[in-house]
């Protein structure tokens, strides 16, 4: 029976990074994963993020943005392109190529770092002295390995909607939404979170009539509401997305003619029939098949594996990271937890601050933030100050033809320490990194205001917002 210092269950962005870091630290490491490629005929590492989540969705977003730009924006640049045609199947093919390249890249990294990759589902089978026995189930062919430490990184799965079953034909989850090979005339989306907004944006830009139904009365409740209101205005009034808030779903019927949704919104009973319906109402931790109950692994009332601040479970030398534990369900959070756990196993003392983890929504314009929102600061009774600056007067944004949006900086009124940075605009997924660095190093708004920012760049808007915190903006 093979023995390892570390066995990781799951090869998503948390698991594969944990395995690589453990191997770098000289620990004999194996990683168990049951993921398969789109065709279902070969293993595929990378988990949901790489195969049916973060990466493929960004590929589709970019393709749809190019198509929209060719139709609507090129003429402004003096470029005539004639009759622009869209090929959904080709867009999906490009996305699949990118996914295949990156999943193969993880396989290469495992080989390079001497991580043993085992195909199958991993589960805890009990202790043999100081070692954990872990079963690997490869489609019914079972084997046992032993490990001093086990890291559970099994991720999450889409939250089911009781009113309708996902068939990925007419009613789609994130995977089905990423594999449509024809543009639906009418597309419905249940949920206005990250997946709902991103997928709704993709298919709206290539020709679908998109209606998003959201149960919450507030749009993007987790975001700073000044940013959220700006986003709502752009998405609805300028881009034509129909977003209904405070929706109560009554009935969903899936038939050959389409998917009919009966619901209430704004005190009125409504009914819509869609060609396709995307269900994106969040995700739940994936602990199926771990043998958690028999092993004595504790979970909380929502199904998350209980861990302490260092990702230790109640079982000795069993750790858990990523979507399967508390905290934001973000790939980069999972990766950093994976690194931290590997280093703890090796005797190091790493630190991970959940307060400085950035959030991004890859719509157009993009939305990104880190730290506290203004609503949170008000609820805490915090004494704060703020500065804002828009992209409308930014030379780089105007040159790109993407001058919508703004940056908002929140700082402590007495110490000037940055408390939150919130953005909507072009490439703010990249700009937010400066805000993350500022929070991590406990910078003040004046620190960012005193740093020289290259001209002309989009980052000047963050610089200007930081100046505005002390009412000394130069361009506002």
UniProtKB/TrEMBL annotation:
Assigned GO CC terms: cytoplasm
Chief location of this protein within or outside the cell: cytoplasm
UniProt binding sites for FAD: 58, 122, 154-156, 323, 329-332
Domain spans labelled FAD/NAD(P)-binding: 4-338
Alphabetized Gene3D superfamilies for the sequence: 3.30.390.30, FAD/NAD(P)-binding domain (3.50.50.60)
Localization terms from the record: Cytoplasm
GO biological process, one term: 2-oxoglutarate metabolic process
Residue ranges occupied by any Pyridine nucleotide-disulphide oxidoreductase dimerisation domain in the UniProt entry: 357-465
Residues at the active site: 455
Matches recorded under InterPro entries: Class-I_Pyr_Nuc-Dis_Oxidored, FAD/NAD-bd_sf, FAD/NAD-binding_dom, FAD/NAD-linked_Rdtase_dimer_sf, Lipoamide_DH, Pyr_nuc-diS_OxRdtase, Pyr_nucl-diS_OxRdtase_dimer, Pyr_OxRdtase_I_AS
Annotated EC: 1.8.1.4
Residue ranges that the Swiss-Prot or TrEMBL entry lists as coiled coil: none
Enzyme class: oxidoreductase
Co-factor binding comment: Binds 1 FAD per subunit.
Lineage, highest ranks first: Bacteria, Pseudomonadati, Pseudomonadota, Betaproteobacteria, Neisseriales
Keywords for this protein: Cytoplasm, Disulfide bond, FAD, Flavoprotein, NAD, Nucleotide-binding, Oxidoreductase, Redox-active center
Catalytic activity, reaction form: N(6)-[(R)-dihydrolipoyl]-L-lysyl-[protein] + NAD(+) = N(6)-[(R)-lipoyl]-L-lysyl-[protein] + NADH + H(+)
Protein name: Dihydrolipoyl dehydrogenase
Organism: Neisseria musculi
Miscellaneous notes: The active site is a redox-active disulfide bond.
Known cofactor(s): FAD
Entry keyword annotation includes Protein biosynthesis: no
Keyword set includes Cytoplasm: yes
Family statement drawn from the similarity comment of this UniProt entry: Belongs to the class-I pyridine nucleotide-disulfide oxidoreductase family.
Residue positions binding NAD(+): 191-198, 214, 282
